[in-house]
Amino acid sequence: MNARIRRAVRARGRFPNAAAALKCVYLAVMSLDPTGQGRRRWMMRWKPALTAFEFASEGRLAAARE
């Protein structure tokens, strides 16, 4: 999973804001299951990652969502 996220971020390069970076990571995680069969499983995995990003960015993601 980390390799896919790293590849997606590296391919994009720069992001205009935190919301764009978050969207890129979200799409990379969702692309790991293109059939949608494991969608619930991936959604459960996305929440801890989002919480970790929120903690590491000290509230910047909450401001980007508004």
UniProtKB/TrEMBL annotation:
Keywords: DNA recombination, DNA-binding, Transposition. The keyword DNA-binding applies. Pfam families: Transposase_mut. It comes from the Bacteria. The keyword DNA-binding applies. Required for the transposition of the insertion element. Belongs to the transposase mutator family. This is Mutator family transposase. It comes from Asanoa siamensis.
